[in-house]
Amino acid sequence: MANLSKTKALFGFTSPRTIEKIIPEIQLLVDNYQGKKWSGNSDLQTDFFQTLFESKYYEGDKFPRNPALAARDRITRAPKAFGFVDLKPTVKITDAGKLLLTENRIDETFTRQMLKFQLPSPNHTESKTVDFNVKPYLELLRLIDAVGSLSKTEIALFFSQLTNHNKFDEIVQKIKKFRNGSKEFKGSRKMYISEIFHKEILEIFHSQIQDENFKTRESADASLKKFIKTKSANMKDYADAFVRYIRATELVTFQKRTLRLIISPQKKEEVDFLLAKTPRDAKKFKTVDEFKEYLHNPFTLALLSDDKNRLIQKIEALGLDNFDKTLEIEELKDLLDELRISIKSKNIEKKKKELKDYKEFPDILKVFNQIKKKEVPDAPLFLEWNVWRALTMLNYAKRIDGNFIMDIDGMPLNYAPGNKPDIESEFENFGIITEVTMSGGHTQYKMESESVPRHFGRAKESQNKEMYCLFIAPKISEGTLAHYFGLNRINTKYYGGKTKIIPLSIDQFIRFIKTGIDNKFRNPEKLKNWLESHWLKNQDIDDENVWSKSIEKSILQWAS
Q1: How far, in Å, CA of 109 to CA of 395, rounded?
Q2: Percent of the chain with pLDDT over 70
Q3: Is pLDDT of 18 > 80?
Q4: How far apart are CA 239 and CA 244, in angstroms?
Q5: pTM assigned to the model
Q6: Which of the four CATH numbers 3.10.180.10, 2.40.10.10, 3.40.50.300, 3.40.91.50 does domain 356-557 have?
């Protein structure tokens, strides 16, 4: 049971990074451990983590020192808190979990369960110092709706303080004051935000600070300065988690220019319904069993789409008049899903057309700058999306597909699946896959050394054409550069022969795209020749550093 007694602010679930990743992990849990004792059973927890670590779903390559703790981090937080698994007396999949594992309308399932998550609950020991009474994800939706849009910084600074829904108006006023103060502040925005973090942390944790209780589990440094730095980092991490998780409901999207969270225009009616119909008070329960009956049953929270008449109205509002209105609710939902998929496809095609005239280029440059500074809500996801936009803008490919998932508004929602490259480009007589990462140093090498060439080999086999790979990162690590340099020279059957991987930093990629625009790129053969020439140099050149410098020197001439 989680303890709220030391908690002064709201917390998000930071593991896994995106909530969709709990689906295969729950499946592993119930396939191998259903009916077995979980609580207090460190041997079983360790065994579960070993199973997860050896599965295709686990992305890291470092086994934790305490696998039982790592297992609890994956299962007793988000999966249990949102009611997808029951861990007492033994491991059991709930009705909500069964619905999630069907992967049918997972946005609805996440919405139902997230909006029921509350503090306090029978899963949490109540605090003696903070009067918790809040459904965090419900109030986050309400706050986005009330103030029009929210940045991750505003979530960290102010939403985190919404421990009781009665403080809602106070939080709204704090956000408005923060925005007005930002306009009037004479220094840099970074300095302004730092000052506000300092002020708010002093207020939130005033009792600890008065008692000079500055010790945090993250550090032995017990100074006030270190305390504020640690709390600031934690609040930002939780804000990031709230953004990632609330996005899974698809009720919110990103504002195209500011990349702030907004209510999806396509889902405004549904959000209005939820805000009007869902009780704000944390529900009281006489027994734990009563709580479980409420949390584990997905249909104890009503959605707009559960009302047949409203569902029919929604379908009609999306432009379909001639359909069978006697269909069952789930059949009507299937029809609505088909309509939304069609709208999503049209929005993506519209976005591709908008990119063709280069008008989006200043915005693409702006987003790259925000990505480098990590000022976007989800830098790795936005890097995939922004590189796709840049490549689409170059034009003259038969197709350029970003394998990341977009929402109905055409904004990035989730990453490309692990078995696919991030972006695929097909030309008449060759193809390019593009892989991107925000990682650096040795972590970059560990994460990308095997998957990138594997995707290259599979793409070469599927397209049956000459294939190249662009690998893009904020900075190419020495290990990654050396690995691809060597791999390009070795005939490896598993990777389709010799790989043809060309690594570029984000800054080099920006210059690469700008060169294409400046030279009015329209001949794909120039692109192929440039890629091929650097692979050929790779075969004979002295070492990877000389090769990297050769790539750098040629970027401004490739399209001329």
Answers
A1: 38
A2: 98
A3: yes
A4: 9
A5: 0.87
A6: 3.40.91.50
